[in-house]
Amino acid sequence: MARDYYGLLGVSTKATDQEIKRAYRKLARELHPDVNPDEAAQARFKDISTAYEVLSDPEKRRIVDLGGDPLSQGGGGGAGFGGAGFGGGLGDVFEAFFGGGGQTSRGPRGRVQPGADSLLRTKLTLEECATGVTKHITVDTAILCDACTGSGTNGDSKPVTCETCRGAGEVQSVQRSFLGQVMTSRPCPTCRGAGETIPDPCHKCGGDGRVRARRDIAVKVPVGVSGGMRIRLAAQGEVGPGGGHAGDLYVEIIEQQHDVFVRDGDDLHCTVRVPMVDAALGTTVTVNTIIDGPTEITVPPGTQPGKVESVRGHGMPKLRSGVRGDLHAHLEVVVPSRLDSKQAAALSAFKDLRDKDQAEVVTTASQHNGGLFSRLRDAFSGR
Ligand SMILES: [Zn+2]
Ligand SMILES: [Zn+2]
User: Fold this and answer.
1) Residue 86 pLDDT more than 70?
2) Residues with a beta carbon under 5 angstroms from ion ligand 2
């Protein structure tokens, strides 16, 4: 299933290179993400850029004219390009398809090159991860030069064929070696492989077709993200040389530490200090949770230090499904460090009622929780 590249640009299959270029530039002027932030427009801009990449390359255009698709991978139903979830940028597709990392040169590579992806990071609080948020961030990337709309030329001037390489984009040199004469080719130093030069470059971009600019964009962060995840914004990365279509922008989440809760996947953990007497008699504690507000935790009578009370479904929402993890309260029993005489007397009276309670060295078999070392392990595993 070949894509209709001619249709995307609205030109006939007989269109000249000039007509294709003109059609692309006209569409790019209305659809470029810097002009038109609308998501549908961005998708279309990527499509027309792809179409232009293909039709402006004689080799690829030939494949299209033969009914093929130079960008389809193995010809299997047009998978992979233009849709969501494609991370590598156009350059990867070209390299995968044409099998070249620049070693096998195929004439001039053209001045218009796809732009690079870019990456930036943004800090989110645990609350923002839990509820989702729209973040306004400043991006510094190359954008299309508005003075020449990417052509790199000044006014109506036109690029000319490079004199050094006569448009081939590469120069050959003959070297003698013990094998005899060896012909090597390298990218043309004058046009850097483009095959053409711009005698009268655009005053704003110096012929590059792009300029650096800062802009503010709004990033919609979905519910349930966590540190290290990346959000992809199609065609918001660097505009390529010659105004080539923009790469993608990735926003990586950095999750800030929370005052109370420690996140473990979709579960949340917190530590609750319980006075000794409350642990013995039982009590309730209110935890101010991130999503559900005040939530009561029951401390049953006879609670031992280190016990964990869990509340199901009060943890973080899972990305996409929104299914909630659990909240785990780790109970720390606090023994009063100072007693006044009245309190000491009360505890002595209590001790008289519990005359069987005595400090003792325990046998390994009688330890609960799997023994001392197991609990030490738990303590060090960050729980
Ligand atoms: Zn050249
Ligand atoms: Zn310019």
Assistant:
1) no
2) 145, 147-148, 202, 204-205
